[in-house]
Amino acid sequence: MVEWAFQIVGGGDYVLYQTAFGQGRPQELYSARIDGSTPAVRLNPGLAAGGVVCSPFAYSRDQGTVVYRANVQNTERFDLFAQPVDGSAAATLLTGGLGAGWTVESMIGVGGEERAVFLATRDGETVFDVFSAPLDAAPCRRG
Fold first, then answer.
1. Closest to 66 (Cα-Cα) out of 54, 80, 88, 82
2. Is residue 115 within 8 Å of 67, Cβ to Cβ?
3. Torsions phi, psi of 68, nearest 5?
4. Of 44, 42, 37, 110, nearest in space to 78 by CA
5. Largest Cα–Cα distance of the chain, in whole Å?
6. What is the pLDDT of residues 23-34, one digit of tens each?
7. Is the peptide bond before 56 cis (omega within 30 degrees of 0)?
8. 26: exposed, middle or buried (C-beta count within 10 Å: 0-12, 13-18, 19+)?
9. What is the arrangement of strands in the sheet containing 2-9, beginning at the earlier edge strand?
10. What is the pLDDT of residues 41-96, one digit of tens each?
11. What's the number of domains the chain is made of?
12. Residue 60's closest CA among 20, 114, 97?
């Protein structure tokens, strides 16, 4: 069984879809040109067994960059990544500056300054902190 979700972006040029090819396989994020002129590309970094890419996704103002939350190493930590929807560059880790013990709980969206806004918690805490991170992987900031 193939489970999937999709969204048309990039001015209608691309379809982004999340799928797991087969039972027990991880949910991953793919992009394909609507006109079928190029093969689909996997956008997320390779996932360890048990890793997952979470929806919903957010987009830059021009819809050229997708932002998504993923657990890449099958740990309890979720990070935020940004990547061109055409797959022309590797995923950029946006939350690397959070440090050990933090996990991204949810993504709020991408703000007008091309910053991803998200909620994160520190291990063992139940209070959410609001952070924002520029899509170019410059350091994220609290509040």
1. 82
2. no
3. -145, 160
4. 44
5. 48
6. 777 788 999 999
7. yes
8. buried
9. 2-9, 14-21, 28-33, 41-42
10. 999 988 888 888 888 888 888 888 999 999 888 777 899 999 999 999 999 999 88
11. 1
12. 114
Give the chain's length: 143
Question: Could you tell me how many helices (H) and strands (E) the chain has, helices first?
Answer: 0, 12
Q: Residue 19: how many CB atoms within 10 A of its CB?
A: 18
Question: 70 near 116, Cβ under 8 Å?
Answer: no
pTM score above 0.90: no
Quote the domain boundaries for residue 105: 2-142
3-state secondary structure 16-28: EEEEEECCCCCCE
Contact at 8 Å (CB) between 95 and 140? yes
- In CATH, what number is assigned to the domain containing residue 109? 2.130.10.120
Question: What are the tokens at 127?
Answer: 């209070």
Give CA–CA dist 79/89, Å, rounded: 18
Q: Look-up: residue for tokens 């990544």?
A: 81
The answer to whether the beta carbons of residues 43 and 87 sit under 8 Å apart is yes
- The dihedrals phi and psi of 98, each to the nearest 5 degrees, come to -65, -35
